[in-house]
Design a protein that fits this description.
- Helix 1 crosses helix 3.
- The chain is globular and about 35 Å long.
- Strand 3 and strand 4 form a beta hairpin.
- The protein has a four-stranded mixed beta sheet.
- Helices cover about 25% and strands about 20% of the residues.
- The N terminus is likely disordered.
- It is of the alpha+beta class.
- The protein has one domain: Glutaredoxin, CATH 3.40.30.10.
Length: about 120
């Protein structure tokens, strides 16, 4: 599986994103966390994500959606998820950031820096 580096992704047509990517509010981006429910690495990443959001008091920054790729493979395919864990920041039905296989809190902080306080 190929790795996609964090960064701004190309514009995706609105009609191509499922309802999970629709904005929950006009102001809060959606953070979609793709994981495998049997993966220890994914559980670690979820812990790192919690640390980043708690440390910087950003609990309300994102609407967090967790997607288990083993239970929802069609969503993983639709969003072109090749590696788990992967996080997507979606604003206005557009993917603004893709963070693939973060290796700790620092990777997450760097990837989410544009939205964190």
């Amino acid at each position: 599986m190929g790795r996609i580096q964090p960064g701004i992704q190309p514009v995706v047509p609105q009609a191509s994103l499922p309802a999970a990517a629709a904005p929950a509010t006009a102001e809060r981006p959606r953070l979609i966390y793709f994981y495998d429910s049997t993966s220890g690495k994914c559980r670690k990443t979820e812990g790192f994500l919690a640390q980043v959001l708690q440390r910087r008091r950003n609990h309300e920054t994102f609407d967090l959606v967790r997607v288990a790729v083993d239970l929802r493979p069609e969503l993983a395919e639709r969003f072109r998820i090749e590696v788990v864990p992967t996080l997507l920041v979606v604003e206005g039905r557009r993917i603004r950031r893709r963070i693939v296989d973060p290796h700790g809190s620092r990777d997450l902080e760097l990837g989410l820096a544009d939205w964190l306080r």
